[in-house]
TrEMBL record:
InterPro entries: K_chnl_volt-dep_bsu_KCNAB-rel, NAD(P)_OxRdtase_dom_sf, NADP_OxRdtase_dom. Keywords: Ion channel, Ion transport, NADP, Oxidoreductase, Transport. GO terms for cellular component: voltage-gated potassium channel complex. Belongs to the shaker potassium channel beta subunit family. One of its GO terms (molecular function) is oxidoreductase activity. GO terms for biological process: monoatomic ion transmembrane transport; regulation of potassium ion transmembrane transport. The keyword tRNA processing does not apply. This is Voltage-gated potassium channel subunit beta-2. Residues 10-238 form the NADP-dependent oxidoreductase domain. The gene is KCNAB2. It comes from the Eukaryota.
Amino acid sequence: MFYFRLDSDRGLSRKFILEAIDASLQRLQMEYVDIVYINRTDPMCPIEEVVRACTHAINHGKAMYWGTSRWTAMEIMEAYTVARQCHLIPPSAEQTEYHMFQREKVEIHLPELFHKIGTGTITWSPQAFGLLTGKFDEGVQLLSRGSLKSLSALQDRMNTDDSRNPKDQMKMRELNHLADKLGCSITQLTIAWCLKSEQVQCVLLGALSVDHLYDQLQALQIIPKLTTNISNEIEKILDNKPTRHPLQR
């Protein structure tokens, strides 16, 4: 379920969540889904209402589990606490952005929380919205996320100075050289790197064709090649390993 902060007609009320689930099931022509994700929190809607709505959907056989997406560690903990106090069903997973240039949340903020409450991490955008593939250098591809009007902000994000600064361009060139040395593409290397992370249970992929998907799945063959030496080489190239603030230790 998506909550867009710019949409005045959408929120995460119980009514909206349950109606959206029913509409999704009708479009999918399915009786239930494995998991329902709640994308972001709604400041106008109590988290307890979200937890109750998701519990209702699960109890009525419309979903097996529910999870959060782009929630903060504090928000996830609040949902878990509400669920335990009210005898409801807590979230099972957090879906969040994770790639070589976006690491702090997955590697620093979530692990300690998840070890306490037992939820998993499902990550998306291993290629950093195409930045790590060079896709946006040649314009938006047909049917890519950046070509969708509702997601045009992704294109703007890739066109910012931060996404094209010389240091990151140099890092991408060095990563491409490393991928060549390993006998794989930069796409396969970035996916394998994400899967290698101890904090990640699943990586979501986006493919434009079946062949594209098969090519991405070859990343599974690259994971054994990410030895300690190779991992250290990647860290040296990236030079952005997040560290916990002394007050958080």
